[in-house]
């Protein structure tokens, strides 16, 4: 990234993000007393010190403010949208990510649930000359809301990395996530994923995380440490989340 970004501008943006994060955390915590369930509708308001997706920081070390809303039908289908500020590679001007999704959930037994979902990832106010919007199809199997295995496929992913540019190429992912209750409203969390980018850049890589989650009614606060293999650094240099520690807070309405 050093050949593409203004270092002084990058540092100033990170300083601003660090100053903004405590205020946003206070805002999130402050609205908790008024939060309540809204039937089939639910919404989230969140803030994170570092928006990390599949081992790659989407904000390059900066904070992110995130909003989402979902409608869940009694028949099993659902639809919603989720958004966040991002700082996409390559470029030095932040933009916004908007994910619109729809899918279907079905209980297979008392313990197992299956879900299929389509998501369209869009980048608004994106200063990059190429459009990076793409679609993804995912199938998830969940065991008692504690362990989830997801297989996903993106047929038209466009990306730029230190290894070159790839337009409208398929990518694949397999991810496992777990959550185990501890004492005092604490959960141990962890996950790992394997990502196949061979048709984009001729590489594959793994990434994962381990952390703690504190849940109190509608509020959840997460602390996580991320790990990746060296391939992420080859692709995105300082965008790699290897060794990064991030704190996030989410309020669910």
What does this structure look like?
- By secondary structure, the protein is mainly β.
- The chain has one domain: monomeric porin ompg (Porin).
- Helices cover 14% and strands 57% of the residues.
- It has 3 helices and 14 strands.
- The strands form 2 sheets. It has a 12-stranded antiparallel barrel. It has a two-stranded antiparallel ribbon with strand order 2-3.
- The longest helix is centred in the first third of the chain and has 24 residues.
- The radius of gyration is 18 Å and the shape is globular.
- It starts with 6 loop residues before the first helix and ends with a strand.
Features:
14 strands; disordered N terminus; mainly beta; globular; Porin; single chain; 253 residues; 57% strand
Average pLDDT score: 87
What profile does the largest beta sheet have?
12 strands, antiparallel, barrel
What percent strand?
over 45%
CATH topology (fold) name: Porin
- CA-to-CA gap between the ends? 38 Å
Main sheet: strand order? 1-4-5-6-7-8-9-10-11-12-13-14
CATH class call: Mainly Beta
* Class based on secondary structure composition and strand pairing: mainly beta
Q: What does the overall shape look like?
A: globular
**Secondary-structure element string:** HEEEEEEEEEEEHEEHE
Helix content: 10-25%
Compute the number of strand runs: 14
What is the name of the CATH architecture? Beta Barrel
| Overall number of domains | 1
**Contiguous uncertain segments of 5+ residues:** 1-12, 27-35
Helical stretch tally: 3
Using only C-alpha atoms, the radius of gyration works out to: 18 Å
In the CATH hierarchy, what is the superfamily?
monomeric porin ompg
């Amino acid at each position: 990234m050093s050949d593409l970004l203004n270092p002084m501008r990058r540092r100033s943006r990170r300083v601003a993000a660090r100053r903004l994060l405590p205020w946003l955390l206070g805002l999130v915590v402050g609205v908790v007393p008024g939060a309540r369930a809204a039937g089939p509708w639910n919404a989230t308001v969140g803030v994170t010190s570092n928006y990390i997706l599949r081992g790659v920081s989407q904000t390059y070390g900066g904070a992110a403010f995130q909003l989402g809303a979902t409608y869940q039908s009694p028949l099993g289908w659902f639809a919603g949208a989720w958004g966040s500020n991002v700082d996409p590679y390559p470029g030095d001007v932040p933009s916004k990510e908007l994910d619109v999704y729809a899918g279907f959930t079905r209980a297979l037994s008392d313990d197992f649930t299956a879900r299929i979902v389509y998501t369209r990832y869009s980048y608004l106010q994106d200063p990059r000359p190429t459009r990076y919007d793409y679609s993804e199809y995912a199938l998830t199997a969940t065991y008692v809301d504690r362990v989830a295995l997801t297989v996903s496929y993106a047929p038209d992913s466009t990306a730029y990395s230190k290894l070159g540019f790839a337009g409208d190429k398929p990518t694949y992912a397999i991810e496992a996530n777990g959550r185990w209750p501890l004492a005092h409203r604490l959960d141990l969390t962890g996950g790992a994923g394997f990502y196949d980018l061979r048709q984009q850049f001729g590489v594959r890589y793994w990434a994962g995380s381990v952390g703690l989650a504190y849940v109190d009614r509608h509020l959840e606060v997460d602390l996580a440490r991320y790990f990746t293999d060296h391939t992420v650094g080859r692709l995105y240099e300082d965008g790699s989340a290897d060794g990064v520690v991030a704190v996030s807070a989410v309020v669910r309405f």
